[in-house]
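Thought: the user wants the 3D structure for the chain below. I'll pass the sequence to the structure tool as-is, report back what it returns, then summarize two notable features.
Action: structure_tool
Action Input:
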Amino acid sequence: MKVSLPTIIVTLFFLSANMANASNAPSPVLMDLEEIYTYESLTIKTPSNTFLHVNFDENKKKLVFESLENMTNVQVLDQNGILEFQIPILSKSVVLDINDFSIGNYQLNFLMNNDKVIPTSFSKLK
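Observation:
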């Protein structure tokens, strides 16, 4: 059986073209999704899959964040981005008393044990 040189060249060309296209296939794009919690007097926005539990007790006006890993600090910034206060903690749970905040928008930065920052925001409506 005799294989001609043009047949080998054409076969190699198509194989290399297919392999090149497969290696240049776009990778999946990761979306930064956010979860939104809406209550009568409060709206909370957190990045998806960062907190195990986010809860707001309407009666006690307590906002609770629970994570899988320890948080080291919590920063609270006002709607202008000015740091209002920073609380050092070493816990997997943070409880904020919403009565300590006036009506407006706030940015919360949770600094994690691995130097990762989780930005979260909430709006106090009344």
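Final Answer: Structure generated. Strands lie at 34-38, 42-47, 53-57, 62-77, 83-97, 104-112, 117-124. The chain has one domain: 34-124.
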